[in-house]
Structures are given as structure tokens and as C-alpha cells.
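Example for tutorial group B:
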């Protein structure tokens, strides 16, 4: 293919594209330039920094698990279901993405707070959610859930229901089809949505500080520690910011790895094998 065929866009697009790249790169470069490299190791391994990092990873993992457990059924229902108000339900999934983080925190506070919608009931059960680690997980889950739903719903809309219907025709129940045919075909999208959800949870700040506060070892995640250190020790804030940037880059790399296409092809082969059965008998492994 000629160079002209490969570049199916005007050459002048390089100018705004380059400006956009600079817009993203310059702040990252500024962080790298301002890091106190001789003391970098000590700054990111202080007691408060390690406690914040530990808490961030633990709560992000828990909230990501919640997002997967809730997001997968939501995506399947939105993509394959047909019900009144479906468009409104799909729009509601996007609300946490567009809500200001502080508003998300206030909404959660008025839901689980002592005078909130569910607060009195939770208190009777002996559950004090606000300003606890549970509140951190709740805030992270609220803002991260749409990433799993959107990723999976988009993938479901590009995959036909042919294999599902074949499996049903051979006697598989809808539950068997879901776990043996539908979900395996969504492997790459599920990985992408899960990783992006984890990244969003890891960087959550506004909703967390509103509903959970900033208690060291309890609710002070890494973004909150950076905010605090920016007033107390700017060098520590910059060092921790770089650490968070590196974690974000790793997450983005994992979410966009080139093996996603290969994995999708491999998963489709697995589906075909499931439909054929271990001895080439179509449908045996699906209904077993």
C-alpha cells in the first residue's frame, strides 16, 4: 500500500494533534522535572504514604470487584433486553460519569448518612458507613461502575446472538448460555472495563473526601494524601503524584494491550469448541 493510501487524512491534522499531545504531555513532564529525585524513595515510602497507597489498592480492588458483579448483569440486560424505559436506564448509567465528584459524594452521604435515605436503617443494623473504609469503597464503586457497563454493553452490541441461539436450540438453558457462550466472548471487553474501573477507583478524590473524610489508615487514599501533602510537604506531593501517574500509565497499557484482538479470536475459537463438544458433537459441552 502506498504512503498516500496509508494516510487517509489531511496533513494539517498533525498540527492540532500535536498540540493535543503537548497539552497532555507537558503537565506530566512538569511533574517529572519537579520531583526531588535524591529523596524520591524516602518520600514515597514514608509511613503515611505507604498507608495511603495500601488503602488505595485494597479499596480499589474491592470496588472493582463490586463493579464487575453489578456491572456485568447491567450490561447484559441493557444490551440484550427489551423493556420500557430502556433508554432512560442507559442514560442513568452515565450519570456518575458526568456528575461532579463532590455532588456524587453528597448524594452518597444523603443516602447512607445518619439522616439519609438508608441511614436510620443502617444504624439500627449497627452499620456506620460515612467516614469509614466502607464509605471509600462505596464512593469508588459509584464513580467506577459505568466503565464496566459501557465497555461490556458496547462489546455485546457488536457480537451477534447467533451462538447464543444455537446453544439454546441444542438444549442449553439461558444461564448456561450466559456463562459458557456470552461471557467468554466478552473476555477482552471485560478485562478492559475492569482495568479502567480499577484505574478510576484508584484516582477517586472528590466523592471520597465528601462521604468518607480523610482519616489516616481508614479513609485517606493516595489522592487524599497528595492533597494533604501539597499543603504540608510539596516535594512529597509531587513524588506521590508521579507514583500515581506511573500506576495510571501501567493500567492504561494493560487496558489497551495489542493482544486484545488476538484474545478475542481465541475466545471465539473456544465458543466454537464449546458448541461442537469434545468429540465434534455439536452442543454436547454446552448442555453438559
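The residue assignment follows.
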Amino acid at each position: 500500500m502506498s504512503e498516500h493510501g496509508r494516510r487517509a487524512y489531511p496533513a494539517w491534522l498533525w498540527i492540532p494533534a500535536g498540540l493535543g499531545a503537548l497539552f497532555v504531555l507537558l503537565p506530566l513532564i512538569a511533574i517529572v522535572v519537579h520531583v526531588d529525585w535524591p529523596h524520591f524513595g524516602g518520600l514515597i515510602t514514608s509511613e503515611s504514604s505507604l498507608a495511603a497507597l495500601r488503602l488505595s489498592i485494597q479499596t480499589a480492588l474491592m470496588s472493582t470487584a463490586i463493579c464487575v458483579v453489578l456491572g456485568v448483569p447491567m450490561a447484559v440486560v441493557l444490551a440484550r433486553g427489551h423493556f420500557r424505559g430502556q433508554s432512560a436506564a442507559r442514560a442513568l448509567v452515565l450519570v456518575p460519569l458526568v456528575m461532579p465528584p463532590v455532588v456524587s459524594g453528597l448524594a452518597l452521604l444523603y443516602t447512607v448518612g445518619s439522616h439519609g435515605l438508608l441511614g436510620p436503617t443502617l444504624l439500627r443494623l449497627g452499620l456506620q458507613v460515612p467516614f469509614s473504609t466502607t464509605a471509600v469503597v462505596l464512593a469508588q464503586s459509584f464513580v467506577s461502575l459505568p466503565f464496566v457497563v459501557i465497555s461490556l454493553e458496547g462489546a455485546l452490541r457488536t457480537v451477534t446472538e447467533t451462538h447464543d441461539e444455537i446453544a439454546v436450540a441444542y438444549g442449553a438453558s439461558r444461564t448456561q448460555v450466559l456463562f459458557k457462550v456470552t461471557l467468554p466472548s466478552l473476555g477482552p471487553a471485560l478485562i478492559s472495563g475492569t482495568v479502567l474501573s480499577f484505574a478510576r477507583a484508584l484516582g477517586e478524590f472528590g466523592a471520597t473526601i465528601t462521604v468518607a473524610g480523610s482519616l489516616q489508615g481508614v479513609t485517606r487514599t493516595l489522592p487524599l494524601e497528595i492533597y494533604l501533602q501539597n499543603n504540608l510537604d510539596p516535594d512529597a506531593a509531587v513524588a506521590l503524584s508521579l507514583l500515581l501517574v506511573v500506576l495510571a500509565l501501567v493500567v492504561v497499557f494493560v487496558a489497551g494491550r495489542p493482544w486484545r484482538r488476538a484474545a478475542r479470536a481465541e475466545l471465539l475459537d473456544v465458543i466454537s469448541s464449546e458448541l461442537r463438544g469434545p468429540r465434534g458433537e455439536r452442543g454436547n459441552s454446552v448442555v453438559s
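Confidence is low (pLDDT under 50) at residues 278-288. Compare this with the pattern of hydrophobic and polar residues in the output above.
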